[in-house]
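Notes taken during the Thursday session

The instructor put the following on the board and asked us to keep it in front of us for the whole hour. The protein is Protein odr-4 homolog. We were told not to look anything up and to reason only from what is written here. First, the residues (446 in total):
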Amino acid sequence: MGRTYVVEEGIGQYLTELSTKVKPYVTGLLIGQCSPQRDYVIRAVRTPPKEQQQEETVSSPKLASLDEEWITTHASQVSRMLPGGLLVLGVFLVATPELAKDGQNALRKLIFSVEKSLSKRRLWKLAEEEVSDRVALQVCSTTKKVVCRTYDVQDPKSSAKPADWKYQSALTASWLALGCTVNVNIHIPLLATSPNHDLEKNTKNGLNRWSKQIEDSVFLINGQVKDEDTELLEGQKRLRGNTQPSTQFSDVKVLTQLCQGVSARSTATVQVCSGSINLRGAVKCRAYIHNNKPKVKEAIQALKRDIINTLSDRCEILFEDLILNEGPQKKNFEREYHVLPQRLFVPVAGSSVMLSDYKFGDEAAGEIQERFVEMLDQPVQAEDIHIAEDISTVDICPVTDSPSDMQQAQLTKATLLLKLQQNMGLVMAAAVAVLASIFSFNYFSD
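Then, after some discussion, the predicted structure tokens were revealed:
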């Protein structure tokens, strides 16, 4: 028996509208949440059209002309705008009957390409027990027939499995939300051996180490440590049959361990560095979870990943902005302060879930509105854009001494230590000789 996808009712209307507007086909992403029992699809988002692509599809209506790179880039951009608990669940294709034959082959290829692109950016890995099936939905633009299948993205040889596609109204009206503020103060050394002061690579390595600290942190939900296998709502009143958006919000405190356990071994490494990167600030994190008896471990995992993603994503955005403004090769390595983009949240009509985005200080509300329309096909009112946090910074600090000077200083220090050890040996030998003479004198005098 295949998986069941519970789908927000408005998605059916959205796909029908697409079938009447776009010829001969349109692709897009399915956004939602996995759970052990079933998956939830809360949004469908068409791939933004390219002018060149529109001309090509009119003259040559073949699925072979699908722009795979454009679709995977769109998926990467959309994934940045999803809070914890939400992910790209799969892809859809609305096509004419003439193209239906090649539809599943095209969708299979897209599913694996999208997952490969998204997994490269993640600083976390899917757990063994997690659902790794992704959905491929094909809709006939004429008959409106829906074909839903899944592929296991962890198995490159995976074949299609049938799945159920069921609509439900007000699917996310009473989903649960968790939120926290995480204070960040990360010091990342820049190795002197790193070519061209590769800031982005060093930053990702530093964030990788930091993400392991987040994974090992203790999470207090409303001031309590809860067993991972208990229900998140245990002891709380459940909202059933509620069709109006009503969020049950849990405040979470993140306690990061200051030191390793007694059994863990620790080694110190001395490395020659050309500078450092310092990330400082307080980031707002949020995760959403379905209301069908969710477990504590599902909620904590969703929030952990949002914490890791939000810092990683905004560092990526910053470096992309630096490349656009300063070019990919920056020769001067001087002390610089940069402001990380701030996180904002935007409500979804008829839902308790909010979507996310990032803005630089000089970005106007109009630019954010345009991005939501382009990336998520969703109009946004300026008054609905909520800036969630204060400014966080990146401080890039070069070392004043050149690497050669530093090495010379280390060599001089090592030489002094060696001489000190030799001198200490002479002193100890002299002390032993004196004690021996005193002892022999006392012995003979007796």
